[in-house]
């Protein structure tokens, strides 16, 4: 630097009196500058070309809920379907003819579905009429020819996206999908001479200036669509002269290389139109979903006008926050369309009267179901690169049932608050988690990670390790029943206190919850009432390692230490692990890993991967059936009794309450033929929640199963199993007429032979028959 | 699978499964199936149809109409009046009246999917067929028939263990349907005899 200044000083001295020389320098310098300028222009030109030609946008993966499938005989009420339609953003009209519209007539719905591509093929748009009777869809008919339909599949609700770091989100659209009126409105407001200029329109800038001056506010912008695209696409937000010059050069370059339609399409996809938390809403395709909950093709004049109004300032005119402002600018767009004869005066009148039509759901990206999305992300990260997930626009199809999810969210939230009050617990501390699965497919239908369903933080259903307490007992009893030579549901256990000296020399002496001893008790009774002493004695007799084997076979992969306390539920598991364990029981002894994703498609709809249903037989279905019968009895007559104040007895719920030491954890795990749920309640800091399983989690389970569609009825009895009535007073055979008699399952030939005195006539007949049988044996 | 210049990973397991199924198909085509494989040999569609059909098999095999998803399907068990074509139009015997044990009843919606699945199975599109069957199972989860068909598809794909597990599942709903139980037993035996 020093050298340079000396050199310049020397030159100055040498050529001080030579003006001719200076002219030469000026000329040479000018040429050099010009060359440099052109080089710069060429550079910008190549920037424009590379970016515009290459992968223009990174598209986040889209995550969908299960598509609703309906058929004659579906357990589905009209209101439930209406909820689904509202989630899908279908429009109510008087005459549904376009896809995504419907009409209600008393107990019937006329609907036109949207076309959609699934893993197993394309679903066309179908116009149909569904008739309901209470909770059942009784008739399904094509609206085209009145013929009966056997099955209709809706498009799925989008429940989230997986973003790249910059949080830009968009739904790509093609120019031909965009309603012409939207383009007319956009050009009318933003760039009337778009199809005439070369990227920059000096006259337009002047005209805009004059128009705005007259209107007293900014009605037109001076920048062309091309300039705006360049600005959004390539440049930062700073307002400097250099940036403006770059913008002009790049706009001209863009126009030189690409056609108007291509530029317009780019603009429609690129432009920033709103903010959803940290997610930036780009392009009209996503904006339409974000503001109105439906695709662009289904928008009306007033919706399109609002989107165009937003271009100028998505935050300033945010229709969710600044209704009045947004409406004013929307109406201005409508007036402009009217003045250009793009719409009729009547249509303008109607559109201006219409309200903004902003959907309440609003968000399709920042998931309203963060706990479920956690599981989806877990699975995806095993199989895909982050880069592909955030940029390739993959479509992820999941098992989530939004209606059940909402029910479960609500149940946890309301019960947690109610119980806090009732038990005088510190406010805001009690937590809860829940998981709902369907039984046959092991599909996760809903998952609640905490009391605040929208909070995307600690996911207790997946990550909270909590002692499972009595939830371990079915595993202990199943281990025993697997030895059918020695154990049946009526095998007598000893429920008197004992001391067990462990290998470490410590004395273990379990107590019952009620601090009582109950003497000799049959197995089913000990399980139903969750007795600790008799269960511990049973577990020690059959061997702790065997019980651990059973737990592993039920699906627990975590290491389990063979301490005697394991028999009473000292291991800590997550609610998700507990769900896996009970699912294996509900599924008749077939283990299946819970699934959240069913399939993955590319952005264009071609299949990438499927996550098929996979099951593994882990137990003899007969023994599992015995346990299910015992757990049903536990709900009917044992610790789960209060459940039937929520749901009808016809559901025949098989369930188990769980309570850990000092009432730190409240659990309930239960299932019907088709659905399973596990609920946990407790404090994050592990302080006592003062709730037993029945006082806490059972209520949430009850609230959920009260509201969702559950199939009543019992399981298919396996071939080698006899279901018999037992008199609880003496564990002998009974019949329905015996008071308090319960139905239990026995491996063929192991049921008690003798009848209790209460078993009137049938008992006598059978007794006689037995007598004869023995006579001839 | 390439898109935007990105390759999607194909799982090695899927590739292996494909190879295995090719190998099995090869063995069957060239007629040199090992004795041990016969026990678990997948039933051909025709065989399956025969075993499911009440009417004489010869008249049916070549003329199997496939019911479209949205086409009406007759069902005597349903309370809803759907016009009933003569029973002979039914590709599969699922009429409860023809069996004394109830589980054979298949819902029309599930039946429509089953038919599509069988069409796809026939054209070798096994995974597509499996997807259809899984949808059918969502509608009719305790259908021994559907579980059996899924087991058959997995067997044809060479996934013998999964096939055996699915067949066992089918058995748990089969009640006294001896035919179906026998078919399932063959699949289970096939997986064990390796």
Notes on the protein architecture:
- The complex is a heterodimer of chains A (777) and B (194).
- Chain A has 777 residues and is α+β, with helices and mostly antiparallel strands.
- A 5-stranded mixed beta sheet of chain A has the order 11-1-15-25-26. A 5-stranded mixed beta sheet of chain A has the order 3-4-5-8-9, covered by helices on one side.
- In chain A, a hairpin with a 5-residue loop joins β28 and β29.
- The radius of gyration of chain A is 35 Å and the shape is elongated.
- Chain A starts with a helix and ends with a helix.
- Chain B has a single domain (14-80, 100-192), classed as Alpha Horseshoe (Serine Threonine Protein Phosphatase 5, Tetratricopeptide repeat).
- In chain B, β1 (2-3) and β2 (6-7) form a beta hairpin.
- The model of chain B is unreliable at 1-103 (pLDDT under 50).
- At the A-B interface, β9, α14, β26 and β27 of A face α4, α5 and α7 of B.
Write the layout of secondary structure elements.
The complex is a heterodimer of chains A (777) and B (194).
Chain A: H1 2-15, H2 19-53, E1 61-64, E2 69-70, H3 78-88, E3 91-92, E4 101-105, E5 108-112, E6 116-118, E7 121-123, E8 127-133, E9 136-142, E10 152-153, E11 158-162, E12 168-170, H4 180-190, H5 202-215, H6 225-234, H7 241-257, H8 260-270, E13 272-276, E14 279-282, H9 283-292, H10 301-310, H11 323-339, H12 345-353, H13 370-383, H14 386-391, E15 395-398, H15 402-422, E16 430-438, E17 443-448, H16 460-463, E18 466-467, H17 473-481, E19 492-495, E20 500-501, E21 507-508, E22 519-522, H18 523-528, H19 532-542, H20 544-554, E23 572-573, H21 575-586, E24 590-591, E25 597-601, E26 607-610, E27 616-617, H22 621-637, E28 654-659, E29 665-671, E30 675-683, H23 697-707, E31 721-727, E32 732-733, E33 742-747, H24 761-776
Helix pairs in contact in A: 2-7, 4-10, 4-11, 6-7, 6-8, 10-11, 11-12, 15-23, 17-19, 17-20, 17-22
Chain B: E1 2-3, E2 6-7, H1 12-29, H2 35-38, H3 45-52, H4 108-122, H5 126-139, H6 144-156, H7 160-173, H8 178-192
Antiparallel strand pairs in B: 1-2
Helix pairs in contact in B: 4-5, 5-6, 6-7, 6-8, 7-8
């Amino acid at each position: 630097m020093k050298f340079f200044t000396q050199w310049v000083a020397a030159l100055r001295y040498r050529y001080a009196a030579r003006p001719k020389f200076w002219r030469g320098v000026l000329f040479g310098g000018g040429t050099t500058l010009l060359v440099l300028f052109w080089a710069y222009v060429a550079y910008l030109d190549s920037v424009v070309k590379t970016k515009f030609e290459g992968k223009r946008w990174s598209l986040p993966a889209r995550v969908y809920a299960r598509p609703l499938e309906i058929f004659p005989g579906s357990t589905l009420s009209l209101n439930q379907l209406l909820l689904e339609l509202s989630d899908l953003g279908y429009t109510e009209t008087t005459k549904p003819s376009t896809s995504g519209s419907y009409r209600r007539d008393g107990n019937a719905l006329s609907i036109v579905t949207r076309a959609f591509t699934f893993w197993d093929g394309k679903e066309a748009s179908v116009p149909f009429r569904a008739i309901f009777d209470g909770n059942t869809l009784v008739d399904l008919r094509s609206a085209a020819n009145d013929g009966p339909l056997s099955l209709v599949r809706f498009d799925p609700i989008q429940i989230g996206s997986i973003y790249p770091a910059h949080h830009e989100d968009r739904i790509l659209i093609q120019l031909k999908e965009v309603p012409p009126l939207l383009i007319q409105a956009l050009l009318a407001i933003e760039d009337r001479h778009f199809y005439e200029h070369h990227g920059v329109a000096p006259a337009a800038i002047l005209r805009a200036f004059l128009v705005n001056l007259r209107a007293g506010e900014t009605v037109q912008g001076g920048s062309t669509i091309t300039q705006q695209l360049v600005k959004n696409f390539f440049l930062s937000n700073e307002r400097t002269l250099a940036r403006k010059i770059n913008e002009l050069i790049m706009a001209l370059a863009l126009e030189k290389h690409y056609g108007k339609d291509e530029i317009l399409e780019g603009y429609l996809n690129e432009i920033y139109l709103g903010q959803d938390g940290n997610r930036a809403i780009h392009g009209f395709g996503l904006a339409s979903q974000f503001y109105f909950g439906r695709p662009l093709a289904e928008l009306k004049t007033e919706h399109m006008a609002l989107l165009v109004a937003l271009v100028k300032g998505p935050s300033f005119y945010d229709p969710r926050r600044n209704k009045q402002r947004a409406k004013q600018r929307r109406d201005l767009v409508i007036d402009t369309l009217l003045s250009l004869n793009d719409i009729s005066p009547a249509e303008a009148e109607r559109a201006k009267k219409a309200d903004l039509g902003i959907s309440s759901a609003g968000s399709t990206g920042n998931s309203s179901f963060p706990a479920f999305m956690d599981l989806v992300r877990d699975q995806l990260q095993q199989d895909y690169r982050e880069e592909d997930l955030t940029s390739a626009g993959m479509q992820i199809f999941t098992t989530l049932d939004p209606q059940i999810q909402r029910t479960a969210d609500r149940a946890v939230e309301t019960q947690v608050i109610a119980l806090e009050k009732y038990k005088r617990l510190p406010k805001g501390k009690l937590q809860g988690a829940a998981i709902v699965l369907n039984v046959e497919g092991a599909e996760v239908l809903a998952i609640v990670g905490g009391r605040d369903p929208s909070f995307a933080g600690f996911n207790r259903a997946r990550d909270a390790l909590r002692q499972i307490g009595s939830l371990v007992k079915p595993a202990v009893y199943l281990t025993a029943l697997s030895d059918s030579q020695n154990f049946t549901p009526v095998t007598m256990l000893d429920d008197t206190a004992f001391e067990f000296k462990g290998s470490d020399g410590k004395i273990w002496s379990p107590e019952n919850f009620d601090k009582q001893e109950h003497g000799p008790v049959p197995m089913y009774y000990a399980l139903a009432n969750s007795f600790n002493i008799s269960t511990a004695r049973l577990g020690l007799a059959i061997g702790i390692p065997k019980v651990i084997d059973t737990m592993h076979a039920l699906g627990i992969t975590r290491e389990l230490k063979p301490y005697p306390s394991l028999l009473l539920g000292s291991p800590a598991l997550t609610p998700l692990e507990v769900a896996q364990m009970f699912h294996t029981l509900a599924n008749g002894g077939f283990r299946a890993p819970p699934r959240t994703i069913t399939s993955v498609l590319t952005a264009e709809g071609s299949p990438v991967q499927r996550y098929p249903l996979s099951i593994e037989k882990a137990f003899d279905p007969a023994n599992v059936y015995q346990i299910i019968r015992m757990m049903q009895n536990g709900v009917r007559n044992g610790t789960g009794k209060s459940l039937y104040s929520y749901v009808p007895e016809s559901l025949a719920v098989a369930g188990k309450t769980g309570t850990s030491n000092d009432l730190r954890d409240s659990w309930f795990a239960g299932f019907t033929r088709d659905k399973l749920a596990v609920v946990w309640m407790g404090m994050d800091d592990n302080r006592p929640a003062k709730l037993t399983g029945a006082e806490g989690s059972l209520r949430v389970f009850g609230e959920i199963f009260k509201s969702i569609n559950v199939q009543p009825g019992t399981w298919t009895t396996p071939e080698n199993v006899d279901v018999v009535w037992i008199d609880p007073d003496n564990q002998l055979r009974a019949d329905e007429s015996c008071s308090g008699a319960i139905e239990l399952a026995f491996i063929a030939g192991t049921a008690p032979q003798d009848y209790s005195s209460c078993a009137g006539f049938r008992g006598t007949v059978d007794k006689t028959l037995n007598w004869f049988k023995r006579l001839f044996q | 699978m390439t898109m935007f210049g990105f390759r999607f990973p194909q799982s090695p397991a899927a590739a292996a499964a494909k190879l295995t199924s090719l190998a099995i198909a090869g063995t069957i085509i060239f007629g040199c199936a090992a004795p041990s494989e016969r026990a678990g040999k997948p039933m051909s569609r025709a065989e399956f149809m025969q075993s499911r059909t009440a009417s004489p098999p010869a008249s049916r095999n070549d003329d199997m109409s496939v019911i479209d998803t949205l086409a009406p399907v007759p069902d005597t068990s349903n309370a809803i009046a759907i016009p009933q074509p003569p029973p002979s139009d039914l590709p599969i015997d699922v009429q409860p009246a023809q069996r004394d044990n109830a589980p054979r009843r298949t819902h029309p919606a599930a039946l429509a999917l089953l038919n599509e699945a069988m069409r796809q199975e026939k054209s070798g599109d096994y995974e597509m067929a499996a997807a259809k069957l899984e949808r059918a199972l969502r509608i009719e989860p305790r259908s021994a028939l559907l579980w059996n068909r899924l087991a058959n598809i997995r067997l044809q794909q060479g996934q013998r263990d999964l096939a055996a597990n699915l067949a066992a599942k089918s058995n748990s709903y089969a009640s006294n349907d001896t035919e179906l139980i026998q078919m399932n037993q063959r699949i289970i035996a096939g997986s064990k005899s390796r």
